[in-house]
Specification:
2 domains; 18% helix; alpha+beta; globular; single chain; 6 helices; Gyrase A, domain 2
């Protein structure tokens, strides 16, 4: 398995008798379903249901949880968690200069035994991916791949992250497929922003979704609009050569596909597709052109 060091990640430790209960009440992810040596995606939302912080969470000991997030927003995340802690018996701290590494197996048929041969007590499986992906904390294997290699793998897998794919405060969990990858606990009860997210889920009103983008040549820069028939149907996110991700209006993409209309990013013709692991589909008919 290739391994890369991720220099742009940070670790926040939350520990104490009330740590899990405290986080369960504010985060989207259902911590009751979090297994040992597993990292699940999640988010802290605004009351309006928009993602303020995205992360991976895993268990690091008894009454202790480890949150891996973007390094550039980690201090703000700690401050926000501290604000919500109130009287909960939980300690919140950011690790100094943590080592975060990732290993991945591109062959989904590889056995778990093969993929976990080099695991340590600080290694967890990233549940966002169908093929084995391991996160290493503290003591990591020797790196033999680059962050660009990891970026290419993540893009090909259809897994979006804040920063390259969307701005914090700009997306709902459904937009970035957190509902598809176990990042939202719809049955666990209340969390911040839960009412808005649950309404989108039960009414089936999610129209923005992450799509895989393919082209015959290199794609333009992230942030480039996807255009069809003179209308914006989405925005390009992460790019790796001719492959990329986009958050797109799937009703408008469906209308373009049904009409055989070209979709372009800049002057490059692109082909959008739903990630194979995702459970959502294009709408049966193009939706109304309401503003999202």
């Amino acid at each position: 398995m290739p391994t890369a060091i991720l220099a742009d990640r940070a670790i926040i430790d939350v520990s104490g008798p009330d740590a899990e209960h405290f986080l369960q009440n504010i985060l989207t992810v259902d911590l009751a379903a979090l297994g040992e040596r597993e990292a699940k995606p999640g988010a802290l939302l605004s009351p309006q249901g928009k993602i303020m912080f995205d992360f991976l969470v895993s268990r690091s000991g008894e009454n202790a949880l480890r949150i891996e997030c973007r390094a550039d927003v980690a201090d703000d995340f700690v401050r926000r968690l501290t604000l919500y802690r109130l009287r909960a018996k939980a300690e919140i701290s950011k690790q100094d200069q943590p080592v975060v590494a990732v290993s991945w197996e591109s062959d989904s048929a590889a056995s778990d035994a093969d993929s976990t041969a080099s695991q340590t007590d600080s290694t967890v499986r990233d549940s966002r991916f169908q093929s084995p992906v391991l996160r290493h904390y503290g003591a990591a294997p020797s790196a033999d791949a680059s962050e660009a290699d990891w970026h290419s793998f993540r893009v090909a897998a259809g897994v979006a992250e804040s920063g390259p794919d969307y701005g914090l405060g700009d997306a709902f969990p459904h937009d970035v497929l957190l509902d598809q990858m176990g990042g939202v606990g719809f049955k666990k009860g209340c969390f911040i922003g839960q009412e808005v997210v649950s309404r989108m889920q039960h009414r089936g009103t999610a129209r923005r979704r992450v799509l895989l983008i393919r082209a015959a040549s290199d794609l333009p820069a992230p942030g480039t609009d996807l255009i069809s028939g003179g209308k914006v149907v989405g925005t390009l996110g992460s790019v790796s050569g001719s492959h990329g991700l986009a958050i797109a209006r799937i009703d408008r993409v469906k209308a373009a596909l049904d009409a055989g209309a070209e979709i372009t990013a800049g002057d490059v013709a692109v082909t959008p597709a739903i990630p194979a692991w995702a459970r959502f589909t294009y709408p049966e008919a193009a939706g109304a052109e309401e503003e999202a």
